[in-house]
Amino acid sequence: MQTAYTVLILLMLVGVSRLIGRVVPLPLPLVQIAAGALLAWPTLGLHVALDPELFLFLFLPPLLFSDGWRMPKREFWHLRGPILTLAVGLVLFTVVGAGYFIHWLLPGVPLPVAFALAAVLSPTDAVAVSAISRNRLPAPLMHILQGEALMNDASGLVTFKFALVAAVTGVFSLANASLTFVLVAVGGLTVGVALSWLVGRMRAWMIARGWDDPATHVVFMLLLPFAAYVLAERMEVSGILSAVAAGMMQSWLDLLPRQTNTRLLNRSVWSLLEFAFNGLIFLLLGLQLPDIIKAVASHETSLWPTLLYRGLDVVAIFLVLLVLRFVWVQSIWRLSILLRRWRGKAELTRVPSARSCWLLTVGGVRGAVTLAGVMSVPMLMGASAFPERDLLIFIAAGVILLSLIAACIALPLLLRGIEASPDDKRRNEVRDAWRKTAEAAIHALETEEVNPQDAAQSALAAELKARIMSEYRHQLEVFNDSAEAQALAFQMDLLERRLRLKALRAQRLELYSLSRHHQIGDDVLREVLGELDLSEAKLGRVN
User: Of 109, 138, 209, 261, which sits most exposed with the smallest number of CB within 10 A?
Assistant: First the structure.
């Protein structure tokens, strides 16, 4: 029962931390870390023992799957060059540069272990950056950070696992490791895509036979990342890349017909799951902080001087990571400009501003994946304890905190003077999509032939078609190119939504009254209430 109580307390804290984050002007991850540390204070004394393998398996597959699902595919392909140079090239650059620096700074950490720590410090967290910047980052930079976070989760953790194997076995060959890396990566991607495709085909087969219960399909989606991860690991390829590929593939398969209710439920469930798992990871970091601090200082005679020196080590490693990232961003950006000029595209190039480079640099916030990875370091290496495991976790936790704090301070300063302008391209695409779909709907209704049995039914059918087409013509007016027509149409649309919302709330109150007076049963109440809630959700927020 103690485990169940602990899980319930942590889930409650995840929800409470979100409410606190709306009042306290701090990023949600920092609030959750502080809440976990407070809960682990000796007076409260909540202690959670973590199994490294279970921690990696429980948290990483669904988070990586969700990232792959959410990533805009068109933007990812358009910005594939910058994304891949950051997600693969920068990871390797960081592993080598930061790995040698960590080994030089901390001679007690073997070089393969230092490479492993540098690899696990490579993944970034675009969700934290979005929360800190409050969606004020320019869209291309945000898309680059999202794509980088998606891909370097995989590349960083795969490199981390190779470095751990080298640390445990003491054997490393660059040629063999490079070939194995390619095989493991391609194999993981193949397994994820194939399994996701098979699940999509199975769901389509079920839907064709009328087995379209949303809850059943959502359960399959919840199990898919774990299945992709386990199957890939059993085949000795990358389970991490398999989970990412399964998510990206499933975002296409999510467009199956007759799946409207499943999509609504699926998005809600995954939003909840992603929020809960991210929150739990940062809460667990806070809960582990006292034990991490005690473990780091356990072999020393005094606590505070040891913490001071270790804190300075963390600051030095964080600054090196920051410098390496800035140097890579500047170098690659300028190299891409030279290549474009060499290919005769000088008119499309421009020298990157220092602000853009620093936004990409400071935007490399470390987060949940780094913590999940470092927590998965094994307790033992052979018959002895893994070298400096507590120190590795302490450094990773410190770098996460410093990167969050640095982003909280630097991003608002760098974004000063940049107005949060709307994405005009996206807005125009939305308008075109609504206009074209409305025109298609009107055309389909105009060409629809109704064969009523008598004149009364013919008149009724004509009236219904006219009523439905009038709604689509209203949509066309809303997305008319004239600014005056748009303003008038939006005012009418807002007034209509307010009136509809008032009517829906009156319906709901009457429904509650019928239930209180036992004029309808609970099953009828749930069914009608669900329809009213869905209708209100379609209206959106009305100010």
Answer: 209
497-541 pLDDT, tens per residue?
A: 777 778 878 888 888 888 888 878 777 777 777 777 777 777 766
Residues 228, 65 contacting (CB under 8 angstroms): yes
Query: Is residue 32 within 8 Å of 286, Cβ to Cβ?
Result: yes
Q: Whose structure tokens read 């953790």? A: 157
pLDDT in tens, 256-273: 556 667 777 887 888 888
For residue 387, report the phi and psi dihedrals to the nearest 5 degrees: -65, 125
Rg of the chain over Cα atoms, rounded to whole angstroms, equals: 27
Which phi and psi angles does 385 have, rounded to 5°?
-70, 150
Contact (Cβ atoms closer than 8 angstroms) between residue 156 and residue 123: yes
Q: Which residue has the tokens 């300028």?
A: 334
Find out whether 285 and 31 touch, Cβ atoms under 8 Å.
Answer: no
- What are φ and ψ of residue 141, in 5° steps? -65, -40
Measure the CA–CA gap between 176 and 62, rounded to whole angstroms: 30
**CATH number of this structure's domain 2-421, picked from the four choices 1.10.600.10, 3.40.50.10700, 1.20.1530.20, 3.40.50.2300:** 1.20.1530.20
Q: What is the pLDDT of residues 315-369, one digit of tens each?
A: 999 999 999 999 999 888 888 777 777 776 554 444 457 778 888 888 888 877 7
Sequence-distant (6+) residues with CB within 8 A of 200 are 249, 250, 253, 256
Q: Are 123 and 152 contacting, i.e. CB atoms less than 8 angstroms apart?
A: yes
pLDDT digit string, tens, across residues 49-64:
666 667 778 887 888 8
Residues in Cβ contact with 187 at an 8 Å cutoff, skipping those fewer than 6 apart: 232, 235, 236, 237, 238
CB neighbour list of residue 242: distance below 8 Å, 6 or more residues apart: 188, 189, 191, 192, 195, 228, 229, 231, 232
Which of 322, 330, 410, 332 minimizes the C-alpha distance to 366? 322
Would you list the DSSP string of 347-360?
Answer: GG--PPPHHHHHHH
Q: Is 72 exposed, middle or buried (0-12, 13-18, 19+ CB in 10 A)?
A: middle
For residues 156 and 185, the answer to whether their CB atoms sit within 8 Å is no
